[in-house]
Write a structure and sequence with these properties.
192 residues, alpha+beta, 5-stranded mixed beta sheet, 7 helices
Length: 192
């Protein structure tokens, strides 16, 4: 599997603030096929590879690309929050998702969270900060017990992935790098 720049998964609870933040990565021991590290700890295996460890990148631009790995990571994160799984059966969760999420992406995320024991799931295409402000404004109304945000601390990395894909596509179509530069320059001038 191609190693994508990991998204950040943040869990926010109304009464506690941000309670968990992890990279969307898992490290798996290839000899035993068991997960040996989650999130940021798994990122260290990507930085300093070991022969018997494979790092799974379970999201690409915030969308799930490895369903089983995502179930594993989200289950781990929800358990580390310190809440008993049975409490989540009665609580609502809102997921802040990227704007480009499709219905299929939302359904996959919903299924993953159901696998983790969460029953009531809503979605918003806003950032965690915007959603928190929205929660503060509606103090007396029903608020979710937990907000899960799919974010990116370094959005330039996503842009680099887009550009790399654009260059690869241009090569396949025999379009020169000079032509790409001209097109990008035209677009920049249009948006100035």
């Amino acid at each position: 599997m191609h190693m994508y720049e990991p998204a950040d998964i943040v869990i926010y609870m109304q009464d506690k603030g941000i309670v968990a933040k992890e990279k969307s990565l898992l490290a798996v021991d290839t000899n035993t096929n068991k997960v040996i590290a989650y999130g940021s700890q798994a990122e260290s295996y990507a930085t300093f590879p070991k022969p018997n460890v494979h790092v799974l990148s379970l999201m690409h631009r915030g969308a799930i690309i490895d369903y089983m790995a995502a179930v594993e990571l989200f289950s781990y994160m929800i358990k580390t929050v310190g809440e008993k799984k049975s409490l989540f059966h009665r609580k609502s969760v809102v997921v802040c998702i990227p704007k480009e999420y499709s219905l299929v992406d939302k359904r996959a995320m919903e299924d993953i969270l159901h696998q983790c024991g969460i029953k009531e799931i809503g979605f918003t295409k806003t950032t965690l900060a915007s959603y928190r402000n929205e929660l503060d404004m509606r103090q007396n109304t029903h608020t979710p017990s937990m907000v899960i945000a799919i974010t990116k601390d370094e959005p330039k990395q996503y842009l680099k992935e887009y550009v790399a894909e654009l260059i690869e596509y241009a090569k396949q179509e025999c379009i020169s790098l000079e032509t790409i530069k001209v097109i990008l320059q035209e677009k920049l001038e249009e948006n100035s």
